[in-house]
C-alpha cells in the first residue's frame, strides 16, 4: 500500500534501525532560565596577569555614530580574539536645555538633547595587550563620542535594572 | 490593677510580631518577582515614522552618472582596504615588537620581566573625550542656562 512505501522509518529488527538519528550527538543546551543571572566575575589574579570583566562605555548625543562605533569595537575584539561577554545599550537620558536670552527679557529657549550609551563587555584581556587595544580604540574614536573603560561591578549591573521603591521601603522599615 | 500592664506587653508583642510577619510576607512576594531591565527607548520606533506613506521618488540616473558612482565606490573600497590592511600590519608590528622586548627583558633580568608582566592597576578607569572638529575658541563666552534631566523613571 501507499502508506508503507512513504514511511521512512526502518523496523527495529533491521540493522538500519535508528538510521538518521543525530539529536543525541548534539551538545545538550542548558534549560533557559527566565530570571536574570546576577553576574559572573573572573578571577583577576594569575601568573600572566589578566583583567576580569571590563566594560567599554561609549556615550554620545548622536545615536547612529555611537552604534556604529560600538559595532566596530565589537568586531575589532572578535578579530583580535578578545572574548566579548555582552554588548548592550544603556537606557537613553533626555536633557532639556534651557538658555537665558541675552536681550534682557529673561525668556528661556528650549532644546531637547538625548544622550545614548552603548556598552561592550570584554573579559580575559591580557596585561600586555590591554594598552595596545586601548590605543587602537582611541585612534578610531570618532568626534563627539566619549569613551570610558572601567571594570565591571555589581553596581553597574544593577543600574540597568528597574528600581523597586516598595521593596526598598519595606526593607528600610524592617531595619 | 496588676493585670493591665501585663496585657499591654503581650498585646504589643503580638501586634509587633504580626506586623513583622506581614512585612516579611510582602517582602517575600516582591522578591519572588525577577528584576526587570529598563526598556531602551532607542530600540522602539516612534509612531510618527510608521504611519505615513511618504515615499521619496528619485529621478532616474544617467549612464555616465551610474558609471561614475560605481567607479568611485570601487576606488573608495580599495582605499579603505589599504587603510585597514595598514592598521592590521601596524597592530601586528606592535605585538611582535612587544613580545621581542619582553623576551630580551627576560634574558636581562627575571624580576623586571615579572614586574612588567603584571597588570596595571592605574589603567582602569580610563576616560577620554572624542577629538574635536575645531580647537577651542580663545574668547568664547558660553550662554548661560541650565539642563534639566527629564528621563522617564521606570519602577517595578
UniProtKB/TrEMBL annotation, chain A:
It comes from the Eukaryota. SMART domains: Ribosomal_S10. Gene3D superfamilies: Ribosomal protein S10 domain (3.30.70.600). Keywords: Mitochondrion, Ribonucleoprotein, Ribosomal protein, Transit peptide. The lineage of its organism: Eukaryota, Metazoa, Chordata, Craniata, Vertebrata. Residues 55-150 form the Small ribosomal subunit protein uS10 domain. Belongs to the mitochondrion-specific ribosomal protein mL48 family. This is Large ribosomal subunit protein mL48. GO terms for cellular component: mitochondrial inner membrane; mitochondrial ribosome; ribonucleoprotein complex. It is found in: Mitochondrion.
UniProtKB/TrEMBL annotation, chain B:
Its main location: mitochondrion. Residues 88-115 form a coiled coil. Residues 1-12 have a biased composition (Basic residues). It holds the Pfam family MRP-L28. Gene3D superfamilies: 6.10.250.3440. Residues 1-29, 124-144 are annotated as: Disordered. GO terms for cellular component: mitochondrial large ribosomal subunit. Belongs to the mitochondrion-specific ribosomal protein mL40 family. This is Large ribosomal subunit protein mL40. It comes from Bubo bubo.
Amino acid at each position: 500500500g501507499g502508506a508503507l512505501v512513504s514511511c521512512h522509518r526502518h523496523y527495529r529488527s533491521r540493522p538500519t534501525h535508528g538510521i538518521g538519528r543525530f539529536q543525541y550527538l548534539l551538545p545538550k543546551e542548558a534549560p533557559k532560565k527566565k530570571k536574570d543571572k546576577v553576574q559572573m566575575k573572573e578571577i583577576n589574579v594569575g601568573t600572566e596577569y589578566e583583567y576580569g570583566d571590563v566594560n567599554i562605555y561609549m556615550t554620545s548625543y548622536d545615536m547612529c555614530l555611537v552604534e556604529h562605533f560600538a559595532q566596530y569595537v565589537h568586531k575589532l575584539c572578535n578579530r583580535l580574539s578578545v572574548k566579548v561577554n555582552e554588548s548592550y545599550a544603556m537606557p537613553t537620558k533626555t536633557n532639556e536645555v534651557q538658555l537665558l536670552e541675552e536681550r534682557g527679557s529673561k525668556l528661556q529657549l528650549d532644546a531637547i538633547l538625548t544622550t545614548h550609551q552603548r556598552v561592550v563587555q570584554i573579559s580575559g584581556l591580557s596585561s600586555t595587550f590591554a594598552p595596545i587595544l586601548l590605543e587602537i580604540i582611541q585612534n578610531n574614536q570618532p568626534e563627539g563620542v566619549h569613551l570610558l573603560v572601567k571594570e565591571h561591578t555589581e553596581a553597574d549591573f544593577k543600574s540597568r535594572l528597574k528600581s523597586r521603591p516598595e521593596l526598598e521601603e519595606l526593607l528600610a522599615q524592617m531595619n | 490593677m496588676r493585670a493591665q500592664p501585663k496585657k499591654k506587653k503581650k498585646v504589643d508583642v503580638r501586634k509587633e510580631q504580626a506586623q513583622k510577619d506581614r512585612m516579611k510576607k510582602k517582602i517575600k512576594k516582591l522578591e519572588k518577582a525577577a528584576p526587570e531591565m529598563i526598556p531602551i527607548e532607542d530600540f522602539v520606533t516612534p509612531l510618527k515614522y510608521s504611519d505615513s506613506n511618504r515615499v521619496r521618488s528619485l529621478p532616474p540616473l544617467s549612464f555616465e552618472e551610474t558609471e561614475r558612482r560605481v567607479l568611485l565606490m570601487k576606488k573608495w573600497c580599495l582605499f579603505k582596504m589599504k587603510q585597514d590592511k595598514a592598521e592590521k600590519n601596524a597592530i601586528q608590528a606592535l605585538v611582535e615588537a612587544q613580545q621581542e622586548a619582553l623576551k630580551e627583558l627576560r634574558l636581562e633580568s627575571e624580576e623586571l620581566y615579572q614586574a612588567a608582566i603584571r597588570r596595571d592597576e592605574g589603567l582602569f578607569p580610563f576616560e577620554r573625550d572624542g577629538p574635536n572638529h575645531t580647537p577651542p575658541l580663545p574668547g568664547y563666552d558660553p550662554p548661560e542656562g541650565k539642563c534639566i534631566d527629564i528621563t522617564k523613571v521606570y519602577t517595578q
